[in-house]
Write a structure and sequence with these properties.
Helices cover 77% and strands 3% of the residues. It is mostly helical. The chain is globular, with a radius of gyration of 21 Å.
Length: 324
């Protein structure tokens, strides 16, 4: 509802500034056989991503021990955001594989940009909140419960949604005002900012710099802060016992892996001169499709508590099915 309202606020701006009513994607390939293979692969990737992320959400919520923990509270929202990010792009891409001409309306394109950047911006803040949670747990263990209380956790999630919305609305306010008078062919499989800028009938250099500042600099700054926080955590571990170090490093290692998977493609995507490269599609696949799939797998295989919660949930479901 928020996304629809945000885009529908600007119909007159869209109308006045652009003669283009729809865009055409080139997609991955014009070869029908390749498109069929892409359809099958990403259909199953999408289903696996949604199911795995929702499985983690259900496993955490159904476990009384985990549901009250701030770390797993943030994990629930991370999984929900991953499901939202892939849903902003993948279904349209999968359906397009069935058609020779892949089109999207102007409003649909703006909607796709808005949702993708809103959910991605919110995920950055959730990942930062998870890093702060680990910092407090390891560096200030005696004050952990008083600092990471339910009120603060709720505020951080509210900040994540507000920050994601603000980040995305800034992008879309500028994008909808660009004049598009033709051509309308986007050399991509989704609506992304840099490929779209190439089609605008005006000088977009200043807007490109705004994207670098709003997305690229934002990613670099947060990534640097996270690296510093984990440096502080590693320094603090010198006082821990061998077992304490092992457990702390295991928990932090899982989060670091997720952070690297998310930020490295994101920095490459936006923290660069506003031009398009031939391998942008591969980076986009990794950033918006593979990372949401890998995140739950990393947590499921590296985190003992999540793994046990999943097993318990599956056992309950099997017992419930048998009783039926």
């Amino acid at each position: 509802m928020v996304c629809v309202a945000a885009v529908s606020v600007f119909p007159k701006i869209m109308e006045n500034q652009s003669f283009v009513t729809e865009f055409v994607f080139l997609g991955f390939s014009q070869n029908p056989d390749v498109q069929k293979i892409v359809f099958v692969i990403f259909f199953f990737v999408y289903i696996a991503t949604i199911c795995s992320n929702l499985l983690i959400v259900a496993a955490v919520i159904s476990n009384p021990v985990l549901v009250g923990s701030p770390m797993y509270f943030f994990l629930v929202f991370l999984s929900l955001l991953d499901a939202c990010i892939i849903s902003a792009t993948c279904p349209k891409m999968i359906i397009d594989c069935l058609y020779e001409k892949k089109t999207i309306s102007f409003g649909g394109c703006m909607m796709q940009i808005f949702t993708l950047h809103m959910f991605s911006g919110a995920e950055v803040i959730v990942l930062t909140s998870m890093a702060y949670d680990r910092y407090v747990a390891i560096c200030k263990p005696l004050h952990y419960t008083s600092i990471m209380n339910p009120r603060l956790c709720g505020i951080l999630i509210g900040v994540a949604w507000a920050g994601g919305f603000l980040h995305s609305i800034i992008q879309i306010l500028f994008t909808v005002q660009l004049p598009f008078c033709g051509p309308n062919v986007i050399d991509h499989f989704i609506c992304e900012l840099y490929p779209l800028l190439k089609l605008a009938c005006t000088d977009t250099y200043a807007f490109g710099l705004m994207i670098v500042a709003n997305s690229g600099f934002f990613c670099i700054l947060i990534f640097f802060m996270l690296l510093v926080s984990y440096g502080v955590i590693l320094f603090s571990l010198r006082h821990y016992s061998t077992e304490g170090k092992r457990k702390a490093l295991s928990t932090c290692g899982t989060h670091v892996a997720v952070v690297l998977l998310y930020f490295i493609p994101g920095i490459f995507e936006y923290a660069r001169p506003p031009v398009s490269f031939s391998f942008d599609k591969i980076v986009e696949i990794f950033y918006t499709i593979l990372t949401p799939l890998l995140n739950p797998l990393i947590y499921a295989f590296r985190n003992k508590e999540v793994k046990n919660a999943i097993f318990k949930l599956c056992r309950r479901l099997m017992i419930f099915s048998a009783e039926k």
